[in-house]
Amino acid sequence: MGHHGKPKRGFFRGIFSRSRRSPVYSEDHQQDSYVRPVRMETVQLTERCQACQADNPAHSKFCGQCGVSLVSQTLQCQGCRARVKAPARFCPECGAAFKANP
Questions:
Q1: Of 56, 83, 82, nearest in space to 71 by CA
Q2: Helix, strand and coil percent figures for the chain, each rounded to 5
Q3: Which residues contact 93 (CB under 8 A, 6 or more apart)?
Q4: How confident is the model at residue 102 (pLDDT cuts 50, 70, 90)?
Q5: What is the pLDDT of residue 70?
Q6: Region 60-72: what's the mean pLDDT?
Q7: Dihedral angle at the C-alpha atoms of 24, 26, 28, 33, nearest 10 degrees?
Q8: pLDDT of residue 12
Q9: What are phi and psi of 28, to 5 degrees?
Q10: 47: buried, middle or exposed (CB in 10 Å: 19+, 13-18, 0-12)?
Q11: 3-state class of 33 per DSSP?
Q12: Cβ(94)–Cβ(80) under 8 Å?
């Protein structure tokens, strides 16, 4: 039926009727699929000093509190030639002990 109570006529008859709408686009489905926006927190990247536990901006070369170098140094094992991050006391590959930490 048209909005004046008469049957619909013409090219567009029935195209916009509710009975022909796909259930995917029904009003009920649109309400159910609404997702409430979530508040996002900003995260600042920091690097913690191993000596004093102070947080420093990411990619800092030295600690702002105690001055210790934050650049990770690598050691090379004399036994198996594996690259190991300092401060390691033993090689994780072969178990060889390192003489001194840098």
A1: 56
A2: 10, 15, 75
A3: 77, 80, 82, 84
A4: very low
A5: 86
A6: 90
A7: 40
A8: 63
A9: -60, -40
A10: middle
A11: coil
A12: yes
- Round the CA-based radius of gyration of the chain to a whole number and report it: 34
**In b/e form, how buried is each residue of 83-99, taking b as 16+ CB within 10 angstroms?**
ebeeeeeebeeeeeebe
Amino acid identity at 12: F
State the sign of the Cα–Cα–Cα–Cα dihedral 53, 59, 63, 69.
positive
Contact 96, 79 (CB under 8 A): yes
Query: How far apart, in Å, are the Cα atoms of 99 and each of 39, 51, 92?
Result: 51, 20, 15
The string of pLDDT tens digits covering residues 4-40 is 666 666 666 656 655 555 555 555 555 556 778 888 7
